[in-house]
Amino acid sequence: MVEPTLHPVCQNRNDWSDDEFRACLRTWLADHYPKEWRQTDRRPFLRLRGDDLRACMRLLNDHGWRAPAWPREFGGMGLGFRKQWIYQQEWERAGGARTVEPGETHLAPTLFRYGTAQQRAGLLPRILRCDDLWVQGYSEPGAGSDLASLCTRAVREGEHFIVNGQKIWTTQAAESSHIFALVRTGQFPKKQQGISFLLIDLKSPGVRIRPIVNLAGDDELCEVFFDDVRVPLGNLVGELDQGWQVAKSLLGHERLWLGSPAMAARALGIAERLVSEAGLASDLGVTDRLAKLQADLHDYRTLYAQVCNRVADHDADPGPAASMLKIYISELLQRIVQFSIDAAAEHGGQTGDVRIGDLLTDLHWSYMMARPTTIYAGCNEVLRDLLAKSVLQLAPAR
Questions:
Q1: Other C-beta atoms within 10 Å of 36: how many?
Q2: pLDDT digits over 289-332, tens only?
């Protein structure tokens, strides 16, 4: 496979020291990453969508900064975990927008392990160039946290599967071209059996997408309906009825990136500015709450670094630590944003831009963006149950 065209400064980056790699990436981001794609006080959790997301991924690909975790033989950067961590740190330091691109982070690793040579050859280059934008089709009405209860069905008919059913909370489906979905293809005693992993073109006849407008005014979440959608048999990834095992192996180190302190750190920076601009620095009640949040984030950063260092030093899976990190940082983020709402007094209930001294921000939007963090990527209640069973060895309550 032909290697991507690399930015001249960054040739042989895998042979560089960590410090050289960090400096190289920092320079590239300063020189090439557009300001309009950077997070600001007004939009601290900015996420790129649609055409902006495609343009960003193509920019990275053109300069050799796409797919840091992919093996080089598949067109990625082939970085070890420590350099992936540096990549994440520098992206966050530069204020790079959040990107949700499941084709790179979810589907590709699945194809590396379970895909056929034909699937890898046909799909991976298109993912790198962002010719195809993929979304994840797992959750359904009545089968969210209990994913094994899904009802979307695929029945074989000749050389196709006929798919009927519905997916929900499908992020960015309206702007995407394809979906990888879990569908039921058989009935077995255990409900985790009889599920298959299927690739579906969202432009296929019978596919209908309906955006869901949330309380922040965004419509990135969608419902996806399948009505007698014909999907070629060659779009099955892995063995028939073995999709549960495929899906379980799908996430790698991406689970650790979900625990990154970056969003909470950006929210805390806004909270600190708000306290100063609102003239609350002498209010001991306010500063006491702020100091506790600062201490909690400091401690969490130390814990996060310890987990990442352990993974890097021992080439280990994060295991239950990934769930623990996700629980803590999502709830800390919510506490920080709630503090800002409270400290803003009458401005805390406003929607849209709010100016407090020299600070211009949208507290309502930030609040609404922070609320679902305890739900997506495994809701915290379910993760706590898993930790209770796998770490504490607690028996289920009766």
A1: 10
A2: 999 999 999 999 999 999 999 998 887 778 888 889 999 999 99
Residue owning tokens 């001991």? 284
Is 254-390 in the same CATH topology as 17-99? Answer: no
Residue 29 reports pLDDT greater than 50: yes
Spatial separation of the C-alpha atoms in residues 392 and 192, rounded to whole Å:
24
**Out of 51-60, 302-311, 376-385, least confident range:** 376-385
Residue 196: name the closest of 163, 229, 230, 158 by CA.
163
**For the domain 134-248, what is the CATH code?**
2.40.110.10
Q: Residue 10 and residue 56: Cα distance in Å, rounded?
A: 18
The domain 254-390 belongs to what CATH superfamily? Answer: Butyryl-CoA Dehydrogenase, subunit A, domain 3 (1.20.140.10)
Taken as a whole, the chain contains a residue count of 398
CA pseudo-torsion sign 29, 105, 149, 224: positive
**Domain 17-99 bears CATH identifier 1.10.540.10:** yes
Alpha carbons within 13 angstroms on the beta-carbon side of residue 143 total 18
**Identity of the residue numbered 163:** V
Question: How do residues 119-158 score in pLDDT, each as one tens digit?
Answer: 999 999 999 999 999 999 999 998 876 788 899 999 999 9
What are the sequence ranges of the domains in the chain?
17-99, 134-248, 254-390
Find the Cα–Cα–Cα–Cα dihedral 34, 40, 45, 49, rounded to 10°. Answer: -30
Distance of alpha carbon 325 from its chain centroid, rounded?
Answer: 15
CB of 180 within 8 A of CB of 155? no
Beta bridge partners of 225: 166, 208
